[in-house]
Fold this protein.
Amino acid sequence: MNLKSISLTAAALLLGNPLAAKAQSPAPAAAPGTAAAPAGPADARRRGPPDAFRPRGRHLIYVTEPGSLEQPGWLNGVGIVVLDANDNYRFVKRIPTWEYAASMSPEQVSGVAASPVTNLIYVSARGRIGAIDLGTDKMAWSVTLDGKCCERPQVTPDGTTVVVGSDLQDYWYALNAKTGELIGKFNAPQSMNAHNLNLSADGKTSFMSPNGPVMTIADVKTRKVIKTIRFPDNIRVFVLNKDSSKVYANNNNFLGYLIADVRTGSVVKSVEVTSVDWKSKWNANPRPHVAHGCPSHGIALTPDEKEVWVTDGMFNKIHIFSNTDDPREIDTIDTTAGPFWITFGLDGKVAYVSSGDVIDVKTHKIVAQLKDEFGHVTYSEKLLDITFDNGHAQRVSNQFANAFGDYKTAEDLGVGPHVTPMPGSAPITVTGVRSANPPVSVH
């Protein structure tokens, strides 16, 4: 072994065995019919260091701010707080969105979505929607449309269309996902007060939910109404099962959830929380202030569809039910602050709650908290879990905790199409790097 090889091997051993193996391996043979290029010192300098010196894969959490009506607008500032999921959610940077004068209250972020096809993250606020390039962190486009936007957005798996609600009107918009140009509107006259939105895993069906009792279901391509489902009271947060044949929804004036059958268009089950005396507290005079004006504003369906998680804004709890023909409450989690939304991370292993808590889905234990660069808990209902390859998004979570998860999970389950992300230059590597400090322990 010559001096050069010894030096490379010694350096590699300091960085890890994989690089050492690479340093000791012979150079690849030249392709048939071609002459091998000379490899002198100048050529080595021109090529630069090997790829092992350039970390390509990132696993990041994007938390949009201000992300809750229940907190002061300037509490966590304005923008997207980026945290490293591989390093105990250590702060990475803050991406600017829109500028606001200190004398003004910033528009609340109303929803967030992203696409591995366009490499854009779509942030909607009550007043506008914008797209930020995930490779540069620069705003690619921002539109106000007719001045009556915007609520929670979703992007189709093929990266062509963003569907987003108007702000409490009776229609939803279809936008060109690359430019923000208005394609058309989904008119839903029975669903006044447009609010939440979900797409089926294949992106073909739109579930449009108002802050009202009637959900409108439409075909994304034609924007035509397929059917409506009437609930007993105003629909709040809702999620879909694997094949989007069932809707699990919170309702106003109810602590629990309802299940609707999409095929029949009817509510088939009502599941109430009975482990706490919520009715006495809710029906007190005067009624106590509860976030979003309803006992429960948050629901999640685990990827195996065995559990339904329901938030409790009255007692700061998450109630967990068995998803069976006769649902039973099987566990309760006490959160550190009011829980008003649940988002599952990629692969469904952790749940991110708007209280800032990170919960292990298997053990039902709080394992960390999300905090901004100032150490403040990020009280936001709008966040995403994204993995990257050399600046290109590869997997993107859904802001709703649907059973079909992200595009890759949906494809593996047979309910979603294949999604080809923007190309990167190396495989995704979730490094698992840990900081010298132990994870935050919350009890």
Summary: The two ends are 56 Å apart (CA to CA). Residues 3-15 form the longest helix (13 residues). The mean pLDDT is 88.
